[in-house]
Model the fold of this input.
Amino acid sequence: MTDPLLALRPWEAPEVASWGRLAAHAVDRRAGALSLDGDWRFRLLPVPDAPVGGAWSSAYVPGAWTMQSAGAGDLPQYTNVRMPFPDVPPGSPAANPTGVYERELDIPADWSGRRIVLQVGAAESVLLVHVDGRPVGISKDSHLAAEFDLTNVVRAGERSVLRLTVVKWSDASHIEDQDHWWHAGITRSVLLYATDPLHLADVTVRAGYDGGLRVDCRVRDARGALPSGWYVSADLAGQLLSQDAEFDRLNAEDERVSDFLGEARIQATVPEVRTWNAETPELYDLTVRLHHPDGTAADTSRHRIGFRDVEIAGRDLLVNGERVFIRGVNRHDFHPLTGRTVTSDDMRADLVLLKRFGFNAIRTSHYPCDPALYDLADELGFYVVDEADIESHDHAHEIADDPRYLNAFVDRVSRMVLRDKNHPSVIVWSLGNESDYGANHDAAAGWVRRHDPTRPIQYEGAAKLDWAATDDASDIACPMYAPIEDCVAHALSGRQTRPLIQCEYSHAMGNSNGTLADHWAAIESTPGLQGGFIWEFWDHGILQRVSDGRPAGRAGAGLYDNGVTAPGHRWAYGGDFGETIHDGAFVADGVVFPDRTPKPALYEHREIAAPVRIECYRHEGIVLGNHQHFRGLDWLSGTWELSLADGRTLTAPAELPHLRPGETAAVPLPFAVPCDGGETWLTLRVTTAEDLPWAPRGTEVCVPQVRLRGPSVSWNVPVEGAVRVDDEGLLLHPLLTAGPTLSLWRAPTDNDELGGTAPRWRTWGLDALVRKAVSVRRDDGRVTVDAEYAGTVGVVRHRQVLTPVEGGILIAEEAELPEEFDDVARVGSVFETVGGLDLLEWFGRGPWESYPDRSAGAPVGHHALPVDELFTPYLRPQESGGRHGVRRFTLSAPDATGLEVELDEPRQISVTRFRAEDLTAATHHDQLAPRPGCVVHVDAAHRGLGTASCGPDTSASYLVSPGVHRWSWTLRVH
Ligand code: GAL
Ligand code: MG
Done:
């Protein structure tokens, strides 16, 4: 007999969002639940209705089979917009991998008479449930749990066989076309729990800033009619609260009340409530109990609640009445070993890291996360934009108004709201991502507005048509990648009707996030602008064994560190699993590496988000300001640091003043500033003063600084002697293996490549300039070398004057770029050193990587790092390792001998083991062989990074212009 679930062919029926599935409700972890996680019997079928014959293999639950050996023939595939198959909605391909998972269910004997519920945390993309061969239910939505009532299909004390069939491709794939890897499997935990037949079907908590608390309970009895006399009670932090008599009376008069649906309310006001916000996330334990008529507890539901308000007033989004800045990031549930499956510890590590780098908000791009994320956001303090699992990117226009998908839209949005409504962290509901805008969105928005009037809704696809509209499905204008100028212009236009908070901005692909500080300067100074969410948290590189091209899977634990993989492994991106349709490294666009190592851009963000800042330096002292919204500075402590160009660093403890949010105060300078030290910078190193849930005491929070004294003029004294150059005019020097030549090329960043700049550079021939010495003139000891560097369309004239000076050689350079070269990567010198000079010490911005448009977070000071640690291993090799604003550096061997370079003014430098052409040629790091010596760049000018892989390029002020560039530097041996 054909199985009725298969006969329905639910994978090609968008109208069928579920069958036999229980209504969604707030998450509450019930005591006594049985975990069904572990190894299950598994078979991978080529099509959903293939016979399930032959031998079983085994698969681990929760997990994607695409990441496990059981899924041998079906590997991860990455596409951004386009669907991985040609079938149009609601169709799916004939070849449709289907996983059959089976295991025994031993129902505890003491569950007799109880209501038994199966919960499947997430299955991708269609789930069919059978028990002992009997059809139980169907569910779609790969990122929400599905529950099924098994009371009548299993028996207490007996064994049954549970089969979960997961169909990979379906009508639902067309609305799960998010920009990340395609996987399949049961990706979140499976469990079984039992309740009394009389149970709490749902609990809705509303807790306000004023201490007002309302708990609405929905009560059901699985046997049918409710027994008369049931009641609810609650315990809030040890305080007993009872059912609201007024509500009962009103309800009793209400003709809608039936004998099978019970509604009860508990109301209270908490005096002197400690309110919740992302800075001080105060939570209260709430336990709700449903009682049998005799008073015994039938059901218990536990929550951690927070008292807070969220509202939109005019063009401001207010939390507890405050216009808070949204320092957000977009986050996927991602893991380099499992693909999608994340543990609570994984998520805690994500959120802890985000807290340490100044983030206060998360958009759950682009689907509801694992439920534990919201508990953590409540606890650690994040504002969450909770996004429904809807993205129809490739066929957005066709689907937004397709009535066959109407149910799916409302289903996905409403089930998310029902699940997550009690979290104080959730402040906004999002209807999904990149799905055009149609009636299906309005239907979903209508459901939310009635069900949860306490939170705003956002949807980029609606608001983008007109940021100033007032009649679409979005309460917030939430564009993606809008140029700073457009945002400012809108805020100043007088037309703004609603908050402007970018749902995505500052695309973090590769070496990126240029102009982040410019964004925030605009946001903080323009009423109407409130922040945004960086795209994105993760670089989705999957740990891959190079030998057989398979995901390393869970066996890969420990085979990576600090962003770098163990030999024989690499971070795979699109195309690395043999896919023919893929979008390459576009999946690697996060602020952390696949192992959560922070990229340097995070330090930029940390500084921009600094809670305490140096406003200015006046003669009477340093003015400090509190830039938080809700708390003082007492959780912080500080140390003053004075960095002098002559090499000295002085420190002194800092006394942080008592400042309320928004206040400033002058504090006395802790040092008498030495007059003889040259350029002088004052830094306030701010750390946590006590252990916090996200940072031990002493964790650095920010390093604001101010320049107290400008540079003093230094003189190079010409001396007798001769500079040695070869016939081509290249400097001969005992510590250099290649004398300095002109460099206009950098290994294109993802922004350079995808933004179209690098392709232009190639058409000019900048990747292979041909150097021709024109003349080498000697005049006393000094040598003047004129050379030409020919591209395919223009010639750069370059002059180097090498003069012997006290202790070394002064190299004065001049390059004249033709008008055609109107936007190049860099103009500067490149040279290579002998091996063994493995330590870089410098006075300039650091210690982490910085670039002209991403340097606000790298304080000027004396820094030192081994050369091997200077380089940032972005997944696709590209320009990296730069240091901005460098005045002087030394490269030393362990015996402290080496070379020293002094620059005429603060400049961009880099010291790595790779030539720009090495990096340009490689697609992955396992193809790169570090050179024994150093490749050193000293740039007169270096182009900003921008974010043009998706969004605006850098601003004009960070471009390298044509015309004459001059720079000079002194090379000494020490
Ligand atoms: C956005 C999209 C994201 C991601 C990003 C580019 O348009 O919403 O999902 O694709 O661009 O990385
Ligand atoms: Mg998309």
About this structure: The pocket of magnesium ion (ligand 2) is lined by residues 81, 179, 391, 393, 434 (CB under 6 Å). The mean pLDDT is 96. The chain has 14 helices and 55 strands. The longest strand covers residues 898-912.
